[in-house]
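task queued by scheduler; priority normal; single chain, no ligands, no partner chains; default sampling; output format set to structure tokens
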Amino acid sequence: MDILLLARKGMSQRKIAKRLGLSRNTVKKYLKNPEFPGIQAGIRKRKSLLDPYHDTIKTWLEEDMDYMASLSIL
């Protein structure tokens, strides 16, 4: 069942949380802002510490024929 539907039926936030297996804080947030539930901040991809060295590492791997690493990870 939907959180909003249960709330309209008069069920308390605590009972809704228990019935749906959610945190009371989650129910409270959803009732406060029903238009956009879920994560509001975008997920940012973190840069690697090796990004500045990407070209150097790729060159080393291409030069060393005995090394068996995959270039696809770079």
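post-processing summary
- The radius of gyration is 25 Å.
- The helical segments are 3-8, 13-20, 24-32, 54-63.
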